[in-house]
Amino acid sequence: MSEIRQKLSPESSPCPAAGVDEMTGIGHLDERIVDETVLDERVVDETGTPAEANSFAAPATTSETRQPKADTRWARLLGGVNKDARNAAMALIDQGVVSFTTFLTAVILGRNFLDSEFGVYYLALTLVWAVRGIQEQIVASPYMVICHRKEGDQEARYAGSAFIHSATVSVIAVLALLVYALITLGSTPTAFTPVIWVLIAVAPAILLREHIRFVGLSHLRLKGVLLFDLSVLPLQIGGLLLLSHLDLLSVASALLVIGAACALPSIVWLASRIRPMQFDFAAVRADWRENWTLGRWALISHFVGSSTPYALPWILLATHGEAAAGILAACTSIIGLPRMFINGLANFLFPRSAHAFCKGGKRALRELLSRAAVVYVVGLGSFCLLMLAIGGPIMLFVFDGQYGDTGTILSVLAFAVLAKAIGNILGNGLWAIERPQATFAADVCATIVVLGLAFLLIGPLSVLGVAFSMLAGAFAGTVVRAVTFQRLFASIHQDPQPA
After folding, report:
1. Is residue 11 in a domain?
2. What pTM value is reported for the model?
3. More confident of the two residues 391 and 116
């Protein structure tokens, strides 16, 4: 553990500029995404005058000389907005395509399924999300931080290693599902029994799509990711509409269509070799150790903090049945609309935060996270107010009255999403300063709050009890993250210096 602390200490800055070799320092970033707005303080001082020309100037003492400094501070705060806004807009458009696809899928299925069938579909998705979360913590997140210091053959070998790491996660997931299916083979069949066998077939395709997306997002190849996700949309929605027209739509057939829609564009991507990959099994092992050093605490935190969203639908199923799980699935589908906004910005913010801290130090990271927080509060706060005002009628319209007026549930879940989003911004900051293990305390706190309230509330309140539990847990986790980030951020006394 002491070795990990040494690696993650402020003195061992991840940037090449901090004295780490460019081929081994975590912070080496692809010059193609260098922020043009970061001021090189070796060349330009805060008044905009070249440092060489100003080296003998007397210290500024008058209000006239202090004014440009204040103006420059605001310019620095706002200077990165244009470039960041373009990238963030592209990430939002891409996530809009993904979220729109997911939302249309939920609407098609919600209008065609009974409450219990929609509940089974939602439970199947929780299993896929759980595996995807593991992939994100031990493969995707470390890749987003480390990949920028790789060049040429090293970059191609690291991309090949990441592909094998993701494939390994898929294989383990398939084996776990297969063991479960074999164990339950002789028991009484349930509505979930055939779905397990379908998940064994489609889970690798869904995880492969996620791998391709995070590789593109890591390198800010946002147009390529957008085209990739656009190719999935007509395949998935068209296939589901066709099955509905032929009266062949079921949970199993819907999952098969989703798997095929993910698999076909992914195969094209692999065949075209858009991102060069080299496979070196010695490098695979070395890269795994490097990823594991950075990602293991994040994985533990994920198991602790992110297990409750996957567990709550199963608790609801055990206490109130598949119909209640179906209502939760319908509400989650509506609440999934702002996730386009959240995930789109997160896809941009994660790699951008690491880059901002590496190139601009604490000030650049603080300014970036502050801008993101303002955007989240304004955007998601508006959505929360919308749910308070007309959440119930929206639910009745989208699902044709099938799940009743659930406006109160939607409002509570909307505020839970806002609280969670602010916590995610702080989590991005902790990753940027390479303290992912610091999220553990926040995740433990959130889990205790969620499970404690779920034990008390789900019985009498059903789905509303789930919503209140999620809101309280999200708020508690965000408060602990804020305190932790502020403490660790203040302890960093040496910013990375420009190379």
Report:
1. no
2. 0.62
3. 391
